[in-house]
Q: What sequence folds into this?
């Protein structure tokens, strides 16, 4: 046994900056740092430019006025802000209850085989390009409304398309957060004579609430910025939203429409709309974080 | 709470186990258990790891129902009713037969709400403040927490958390309290306090306690059941009851060789 033993380099304890493995170590650290720095350049550049261009065209009218005709000064994008809030709201109303209940079924009640298939399906759904969700919403909502004579392009269709995009994010984050809740807690509640739903609603869900809210916020942030599925479900409008069955403006589509227009005043409005969109997402996240921090023990 | 139905001629028995076999899937985990738990006594289950003492404990409040592969044969009667009868609601069983777990597991709620939770879900009618105070006093925790009832249950020490869990179990006014190694995660001083508590609780409740600590069994229990385990041909492990007697008798004059060896520390 002893004869087959290998040996190690016998060196001193003093640093040797020139040794190959020290050199390799230092070079790789520098390369990793450069890559890390490069990765945040796009983020800083995009946010910085949006802030810079957006702030210069920001004023009170932006929030209260309708878009002006081309080449006319003034005006705002109030209808698009309202439209985005309206459609994201519709999407949240549809997707959050569905998604959370689906996740509760997955973690708490389903057997493993069914759960695996549903998880697989939601993962596939989260990878579906957003324009496909738009086509689906067009087929399900827009064409149905048209056949019923109730309208066609509408906030309802846009909200439905966004809900489909939000659903897998909510299911997955809720599912994961529920799985992280310790079984000890479920047993404690069951041991006190709680029914399944008393356990889930009063013990498991409150423990997982911060993570669920984070997931819902993420999905809202994603939905608010979507353009493609809204192009042929909600279309666009230069008027105030009058109901959920009317074509409705949104910030994302407004940015798309106005940014490619040749008119300077529209382009400025597109910058303002971009900034407001970014701020809306930011404020939503901050409020969600703040609201859940209060209740957590 | 105190009404008990006389089944056999023995009115002191509250839980009667008759020929119980427990299976996980196809594996027999507990074989042919006959064991009567007496009312207002503390009964200790001791034995080596894997002998099924916790499994048996969890049969008494049907907590094993949460395990998909679990199956029980035979009968467990509680005040004359078969707990595994088709007309029995396990949710109701668990209010009458409470449980304290190995690791303290308070809810992520305030100390007050930890106690009030069980009362609320079971439709308690009465003054909640009084119930919380009474339960915490019975669990010998009131003086330590009376000024911070709104604080999280997690803010307490491990021993306090376990007493909070005991208070939580008491609050739903059970007849029986099952304790699954309640002190194994606690330091010696907290253990002592919980043991003192068990002595006090015996006056009002029937206690069944699983423990790995033989001194603890000797200190707190009136009767002791010794379980052992043996490998089965199919590669599983099957637990069975070796001896069930007054604690004094088990520790001073065990009748079975295996019991004698186990309590003298020669195996397990």
A:
């Amino acid at each position: 046994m002893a004869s087959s033993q290998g040996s190690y380099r016998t060196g001193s304890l003093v640093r040797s900056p020139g040794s190959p493995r020290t050199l390799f170590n230092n070079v790789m650290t520098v390369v990793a740092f450069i890559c890390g720095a490069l990765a945040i350049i796009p983020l800083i550049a995009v946010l910085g430019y949006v802030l810079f261009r957006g702030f210069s065209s920001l004023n009170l009218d932006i929030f209260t006025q309708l878009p002006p005709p081309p080449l006319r000064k003034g005006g705002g994008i109030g209808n698009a802000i309202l439209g985005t809030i309206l459609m994201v709201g519709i999407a949240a109303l549809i997707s959050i209850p569905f998604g959370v209940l689906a996740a509760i079924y997955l973690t708490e009640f389903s057997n493993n085989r069914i759960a695996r298939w549903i998880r697989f399906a939601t993962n596939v759904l989260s990878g579906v390009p957003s324009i496909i969700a738009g086509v689906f919403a067009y087929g399900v909502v827009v064409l149905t409304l048209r056949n019923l004579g109730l309208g066609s392009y509408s906030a309802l269709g846009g909200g439905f398309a966004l809900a489909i995009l939000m659903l897998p994010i909510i299911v997955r984050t809720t599912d994961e957060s529920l799985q992280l809740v310790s079984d000890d807690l479920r047993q404690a509640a069951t041991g006190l004579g709680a029914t399944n739903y008393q356990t889930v609603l009063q013990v498991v869900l409150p423990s997982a609430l911060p993570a669920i809210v984070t997931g819902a916020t993420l999905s809202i942030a994603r939905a608010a910025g979507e353009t493609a599925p809204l192009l042929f479900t909600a279309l666009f409008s230069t008027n105030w939203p009058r109901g959920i069955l009317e074509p409705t403006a949104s910030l994302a589509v407004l940015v798309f429409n106005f940014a490619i227009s040749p008119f300077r005043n529209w382009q400025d409005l597109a910058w303002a709309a971009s900034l407001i969109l970014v701020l809306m997402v930011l404020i939503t996240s901050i409020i969600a974080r703040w609201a859940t921090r209060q209740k957590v023990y | 709470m105190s009404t008990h139905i006389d089944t056999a001629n023995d009115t002191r028995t509250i839980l009667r186990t008759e020929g119980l076999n427990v299976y996980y899937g196809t594996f027999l985990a507990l074989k042919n258990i006959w064991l009567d738990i007496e009312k207002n006594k503390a009964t200790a289950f001791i034995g080596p790891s894997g002998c099924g003492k916790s499994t048996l404990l969890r049969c008494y409040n049907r907590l094993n129902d949460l395990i998909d592969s679990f199956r029980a044969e035979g009968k467990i009667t509680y005040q004359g009713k078969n707990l595994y009868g088709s007309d029995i609601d396990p949710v109701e069983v668990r209010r009458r037969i409470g449980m304290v777990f190995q690791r303290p597991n308070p809810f992520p709620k305030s100390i007050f709400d930890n106690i009030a939770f069980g009362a609320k879900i079971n439709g308690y009618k009465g003054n909640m403040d009084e119930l919380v105070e009474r339960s915490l006093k019975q669990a010998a925790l009131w003086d330590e927490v009376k000024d911070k009832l709104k604080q999280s249950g997690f803010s307490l020490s491990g021993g306090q958390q376990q007493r909070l869990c005991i208070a939580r179990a008491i609050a739903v006014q059970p007849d029986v309290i099952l304790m699954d190694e309640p002190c194994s995660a606690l330091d010696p001083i907290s253990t002592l306090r919980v043991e003192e508590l068990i002595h006090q609780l015996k006056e009002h409740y029937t206690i069944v306690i699983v423990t790995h600590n033989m001194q603890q069994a000797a200190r707190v229990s009136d009767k002791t059941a010794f379980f052992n385990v043996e490998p089965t041909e199919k590669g599983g492990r099957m637990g069975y009851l070796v001896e069930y007697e007054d604690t004094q008798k088990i520790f001073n004059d065990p009748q079975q060789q295996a019991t004698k060896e186990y309590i003298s520390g020669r195996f397990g």
Summary: Residues 13-263 of chain B form a domain with the Rossmann fold fold (CATH 3.40.50.300).
